[in-house]
Amino acid sequence: MENEALNKGEEPVQGYVRIPLSILEIATGLIVLAILSWYVVEAYHLPKPFNSTDVGAGGFPLLVAFGTGIATLSMIGLAVARHMGKMGKADSRWRRPLFVLTVALLLVGQAVTFETLGVYLCTALFSAAIMVAAGERRILHVLGVSIGLVAFIYVVFALALNVVFP
Amino acid sequence: MIENLLSGFSAFGDPLVWLSLIFGSLVGYLIGAIPGLGPSLGVALLIPFTYGLDPVVSIVGLVALYAAAEYGGAITAILINSPGTSAAVATAWDGYPLSQQGKAGEALLVSIVTSGIGIFISALFLLFTAVPLSEFALRFGPGEYFALALVGLSLVVGLAEGSVVKGAVAMGIGLALATVGLDTQTGTPRFAASVELFEGLPLVPVLLGLYALSEVLFLVEEGVTAKIKSAPLGGWRTWNWKGLWSLNGVVFRSSVLGYIIGIIPGAGASIASFIAYAVAKKTSKTPERFGKGSIEGVAASEAANNAAVSGAMAPLLALGIPGSPTTAVMIGALMIQGIQPGPLLFSRNPEIPYTIFASLWIGVPVMVFIGLAGARAWAHVANIPGPAIAAIVAGICLVGAYASEGTMFPVYVMTAFGILGYLLRKVRVPLAPIILALVLGEMMETNFRRALITSHGSLEIFYTSPLTVALLLTAILAFALPAVGFIRKRRRAAMAADPSV
């Protein structure tokens, strides 16, 4: 992995992390395989079909798991071959990872606090926080967008579409 | 047909339908003009605004948005060399050089008018192919339907960006997600950790998460970008309409090509524009001007990518199989209105398909007017700071997901799929097969099991009907051909590296 500054020291956090795609593919493949294993066990324990003409509740999921398993193993195999240098290598660039992680956490926070804070306060606070976390430093822009968004949601969803929010 | 078509046009007697058309076009231009945001995201974001609206009003707005977003990408492609959508990449090849030569106005005029003509011609084709296709599809049994869904999925996987293997993994994930909930045949709960999942994963929050919320994180990656200076809008007055008439051959050919390519699930507007551009270059009297500012290149690309919009509608309306990610999202919008696309749509809800045909034609002058009147404004849209778009999209996703069911569960689903979508895109796993498989999964399983029951548990139903066999062969080819191409490419690369191989 490497970390490079994009703006030559202006904002040191504005870099990117480069991860070999093959590593990510292997990791993703293993996660998918782990979930598939659980899926297969669950499907296998579903009630058996009522008659011999049906495959039952678990039949189709087992077929899906079989096909997906083969595809996932192929993806892992190709990724291993690429990692060992038998095929062309590629990287996945994760730009501004700290900003992205912060916003991802804000999105989770937005969902968790939505009911407690209520739609308007939650939207105003988190839209402002997302803008700041995304790199916006002009306070008037941040306030303008937040207030405008809340007003828009009130007019369209609450007034026009009669949606009842927490 | 004429009677139904007239009733489709009569829907425009309602001012709300006009309002929906204009609003959809405006939002479509806005979404299309912002690089990175595409029609799928636009349609997904518009769904929450259709809750409680009449289905006809909703569908007119969604179709207008889809068509306008495909065009909106051309404006920024021509003025600032930054295609708003991938379908406008070929437009930038000649559109931007024309701008640099002081002919931006001419390029915009041609692109807007040829886009409109492309939609107009392809909507005619849609009318005359979707109706017979839906009548033919009424004869399909469960075996044919299962095979048809498999063809749709395999074509999307085969033509997916990146590798076929990752497309297949994505398809598997989508199909597995589609099995969550109560089994439709026996009522047994499957893979449902909570009661909320008994009805399956809610489609709208999944769409909002994968297409819209994941984009928020990509916008954060971009940060605050520098302002781009647009080229001056020169060339409006020097342009003569006779010049436009001289493009009739290329526009007609590209529209037909665009429509046909649009029908193929997974092919879409981008492939349509590239192929139409290549054909236009081959048949042109001045191929040397392509890439340096050829008006024919702009016309071919734009007519084709807009015609592909109607093309993608054909399998959606006639067979219930979405031909593109955007139409897959549109299926979600129709489903929440209680409308199931497919052959029965034409007999049960004829007002929907015929209003779509009418809206494609009526929408042409509206779209051309909005495009021409606001060309300069649309170019400035590309300068809206990324953080502001991110905050707005995240806010609309949040309230849209909540409003879809009036509970918190869809909000959690949307957030989880937003982060999952971002991670999958980072690993270059395409999202379109997930959405298509999620939409088609239940239909596939139901018809697979129905087929087995009608054939008393024998698999022969899948190889005794010629149509089923043809469809299954198409599905296998759609998977196999890209894989063969990949192996050949590798072999050629190995030969080039070491001639002794």
Automatic annotation (TrEMBL), chain A:
Source organism superkingdom: Bacteria
Which residue range or ranges hold the DUF1468 domain?
A: 28-166
InterPro entries named among the record's database cross-references: DUF1468
Q: Which UniProt keywords apply?
A: Membrane, Transmembrane, Transmembrane helix
Keyword Transmembrane on entry:
yes
Transmembrane domains' residue ranges: 21-40, 60-81, 93-111, 142-165
Q: Tell me what this protein is called.
A: Heme/copper-type cytochrome/quinol oxidase subunit 2
